[in-house]
Write a structure and sequence with these properties.
The protein is α/β, with parallel strands linked by helices and 343 residues long. It folds into two domains: 9-118 and 224-339, Periplasmic binding protein-like II (D-Maltodextrin-Binding Protein, domain 2); 123-221, D-Maltodextrin-Binding Protein, domain 2 (3-Layer(aba) Sandwich). The protein has helices at residues 9-25, 52-58, 76-84, 95-103, 152-163, 168-172, 181-189, 200-208, 218-222, 234-239, 241-260, 263-277, 304-315, 326-329, and strands at 40-45, 66-72, 90-94, 108-117, 123-128, 143-146, 175-178, 195-199, 212-217, 225-233.
């Protein structure tokens, strides 16, 4: 399933415009107050991959709520900005990107985790076998390719560099380059970049091709954690609480279904979804699926999964004024797994 790791610096610039747009966008395609709740959710997908909502829909866990695919996205900040401006009904991103957007007064709330890192599914920083790069200090003056700037990959990169003893000025000398995930491995092999940040099935495919090695992984650095969540606009939640509950419950059940099934059963289901939706995609990526990486049962969110990035952003000067509290950014009230129930 898709593991789009995802943006901060650009998000603040966009957020100023978003705060003006969301008010007008709030009357988009969802249900109006007092009318029947929305039964169709517009969303963006990922090329050659299956998102958890898509899996939930295929398993019948969304009941009468339908998904309406409106295109594909490569980065979380773009995805949640589309949600904040009413172009889509939900979107997913790295928790730090959600914090950044929410801190800029975009009326969005995270409702369920959808990706993370564990011993099976993680994001790694890869170099060619003959690269001289071994540790953080070797990255000064080097280029690191990642799917989008300011998101999960950038936050972990700078955390690693800082822990490695680099000063703020030295960290600025490490060049971060945004690349489409499907092109990142090729850019590394052609030596257009020095380090490639690779995650999920794209990483597994690159490793299987040989000739590369890891210098660090986010799992090694931070342990197992949920890293990103799906968000809805606050006005959508207010008008469609049962729809949001159905969505969150369905995603949570899909997480646990994938966790409990034999790997080959999950892979077969993902391949069948790609075939049935008819988007002319290569199914080879999903054949490498191992886990969603979600830490909490049913995608339940913890304070720490947002507090880590709130503190990091504040220390980096990316949050102006008072720091938001984790509870200001997310809610578990729609997730039946919160109380340990089986949904």
């Amino acid at each position: 399933m898709a593991s789009p790791r995802r943006a901060l610096p650009r998000t603040l610039a966009a957020a100023a415009a978003l705060t003006l747009l969301v008010g007008a966008a709030g009357c988009g395609g969802d249900a109006e107050a007092g009318s029947a709740q929305a039964k169709e959710l517009r969303y963006q997908g990922s090329v050659g991959q299956v998102t958890l909502p898509e899996l939930a829909a295929d398993l019948g866990y969304l009941n009468d709520v339908r998904l309406n695919w409106i295109g594909n996205v490569t980065g979380g900040p773009q995805d949640i900005q589309a949600t904040a401006t009413g172009q889509s009904d939900f979107g997913g991103a790295f928790n730090g990107a959600i914090v950044k957007l929410a801190a800029a007064n975009a009326p969005i709330t995270a409702v369920v985790s959808y990706y993370g890192s564990d011993a099976q599914t993680f994001q790694g920083w890869y170099v060619l076998d003959d690269s001289p790069v071994r540790g953080p200090r070797d990255l000064i003056g080097k280029k690191i390719g990642m799917n989008t700037l300011g998101a999960h990959a950038e936050a972990v990169t700078k955390t690693w560099l800082s822990r490695g003893g680099l000063s703020a000025e030295e960290i600025k000398q490490v060049e971060l380059v945004a690349l489409p995930p499907v092109n990142t491995e090729q850019s590394l092999r052609q030596k257009q970049i020095d380090v490639a940040v690779l995650g999920g099935v794209i990483r597994d495919k690159a490793v299987a091709n040989g000739g590369i090695r890891t210098i660090v992984t986010d799992f090694e650095l931070l342990g197992a954690f949920s890293a990103g969540a799906y968000v809805f606009r606050d006005d959508f939640i207010k008008r469609n609480p049962e729809t949001v509950k159905t969505f969150v419950t369905g995603v949570g059940k899909a997480i646990e279904w994938a966790r409990s099934q034999p790997r080959e059963t999950v892979v077969a289901r993902l391949e069948s979804i790609i075939t049935k939706r008819g988007r002319n995609e290569d199914p080879s990526l999903v054949r490498l699926w191992k886990s969603s990486g979600v830490a909490g049962r049913g995608g339940v969110i913890t304070d720490q999964e947002f507090a880590t990035w709130i503190d990091w952003l504040a220390a980096a000067g990316e949050i102006k004024g008072e720091k938001p509290k984790p509870g200001d950014v997310y809610t578990n009230r729609f997730n039946p797994f919160t109380a340990g129930g089986a949904a």
